[in-house]
Amino acid sequence: MTALSFDRKLRFADCDPSGIAYFPSYLNMLNGVVEDFWAGIGFPWPDLITVRKIGTPTVHLTCDFSRPSMFGNLLTFKLRVGRVGRASLHLAHVVSGADGVRWRARQILAATSLVDHHAIPWPDDIRAALVAHLHADEATQVAPS
Amino acid sequence: MTALSFDRKLRFADCDPSGIAYFPSYLNMLNGVVEDFWAGIGFPWPDLITVRKIGTPTVHLTCDFSRPSMFGNLLTFKLRVGRVGRASLHLAHVVSGADGVRWRARQILAATSLVDHHAIPWPDDIRAALVAHLHADEATQVAPS
Amino acid sequence: MTALSFDRKLRFADCDPSGIAYFPSYLNMLNGVVEDFWAGIGFPWPDLITVRKIGTPTVHLTCDFSRPSMFGNLLTFKLRVGRVGRASLHLAHVVSGADGVRWRARQILAATSLVDHHAIPWPDDIRAALVAHLHADEATQVAPS
Amino acid sequence: MTALSFDRKLRFADCDPSGIAYFPSYLNMLNGVVEDFWAGIGFPWPDLITVRKIGTPTVHLTCDFSRPSMFGNLLTFKLRVGRVGRASLHLAHVVSGADGVRWRARQILAATSLVDHHAIPWPDDIRAALVAHLHADEATQVAPS
């Protein structure tokens, strides 16, 4: 399975008084990309959250910002499913502009019940959809944890 | 030098439809804490950025979110200066609620020129102020890199 | 009853690449002021929303932005309760900086049930608290609509 | 000239703990629509702001929110150029969901110099592009004020 790709424009609202991307806005954009990923695999968040009462909070995040992005830049977010745990999902993100990589992130989401915000195993249908998008290179990493 | 502490209330605007803190809003709050830290050591960002044309972009961030925060929760952000490099600043953050730690972060800021967004060494006055807040346990980590 | 006053600093996150306050961030700040007003009169939103299932969505807003605010400016938000309707609350806001008024807003909130998002009359205890803060000049405007 | 139309999805990040659109996020979305309008008529904001040092701050805004929008809703933003003044631009916005109009706004932007944040007349090329999009019904409203 190849990486999934999402284009975004760096908007006025996402930039700061020093003229570059505001990093919390970058993470807001990243969250929107993850939201689109879930819709793309057949499990849009409005259904997951509102109907099935399943949340997917981020429990870990590592980001490296290597080059600044300027207002108006076109960015490509590439997302890879790196691992599907029993109640977790590991994503790797690479965000690029015209001159190459701008930043990278590794993110772990947890499956939780929105009734008590405790971790739950991925339901079978969701798990199957996630595994289907697992990056080929990392297919051996599917594991029950 | 002890940790610096900042209280924040988790506002309506910072929470999401699943009823807990939205993680990019958490990082927006963190950025505001860092902004207050700079003002507290005598170098408010409006002066740094507008007058001296020095930026302090985040180049690395690692976060672990261990327990959810709910709308209305009171949070305490504790900030430690872990290391002052030639052109970098390492900060460690611990964010706690009534029941203990909610999340932790390690953040590296770079000193940059806002003329070309390239790294620059910390000017002497800024460097002195940062070193004065270096965490005692980590004082041996002051280094020229 | 005199106007209620809330001080705010215009943060890095609230400013845009042109160097002044981003107007949606202004409204985010305004919403935080209204949130603090509700807490101040004894009905904090977390209780209203989470426990009593009462929402207070904004149904009308008029803003006039007369002078720009710059990053780092200190702003004072003054709020007046102008009218308490059967299911509505009229607020008037004046936001000032060191050189006088920066912007003004008139806002109407509605009382709604969060079960179906339909308008409901203010419960008696809430209505009493709102009326107690009605601006003296406008006290004759308490009306059942 | 017919109205200009922009589709938007109401994202997770735009909704609040009561489950509906957060109104400052609505205005952030509106600002993005206006940003796209400017790019569409040949004057993208990054050029205007960064190269030509022209800002387009909002000086007046009136909004009426008639029905709530829920997380995941598809919204259509229709924008009409209602009037092109000497140094101002009047826009009318209608935002609709599947069940009809959700909210409306009237917005006045000013042309300003980003050197001193004072009003300036629209440069001729910009003025021509704006007038070309003036709504036919309101074409008589082109005026020098």
Would you kindly provide a written description of the structure presented here, covering whatever features stand out?
Four copies of one chain form a homotetramer. Residues 139-145 of chain A have low confidence and may be disordered. The first copy, chain A, has 145 residues and is an alpha+beta fold. Chain A is elongated. The first copy, chain A, has helices spanning 23-40, 45-51, 124-132; strands at 4-9, 54-55, 58-65, 74-84, 88-97, 100-110, 112-113. Chain A has a single domain, classed as Thiol Ester Dehydrase, Chain A (Roll). The C-D interface holds C 17-20, 22-25, 27-28, 30-31, 49-50, 55, 57-66, 68, 114, 117 and D 17-20, 22-25, 27-28, 30-31, 49-50, 55, 57-66, 68, 114, 117.
Q: Radius of gyration of chain A from the CA trace?
A: 16 Å
- Please state the overall shape of chain A, judged from the principal axes of the Cα atoms: elongated
CATH architecture descriptor of chain A: Roll
The residue-averaged pLDDT of chain A reads 92
Q: How many β-strand stretches of chain A?
A: 7
- CATH topology of chain A, by name, is Thiol Ester Dehydrase, Chain A
**Order of strands across the biggest sheet of chain A?**
1-4-5-6-3
Which protein chains make the most extensive interface, counting residues with beta carbons within 8 Å of the other chain's beta carbons?
A: A-B, 28 and 28 residues
Which structural class is indicated by helix and strand composition of chain A? alpha+beta
Q: How much strand content do the residues of chain A show?
A: 25-35%
Residue runs with pLDDT of under 50 for 5 or more positions of chain A: 139-145
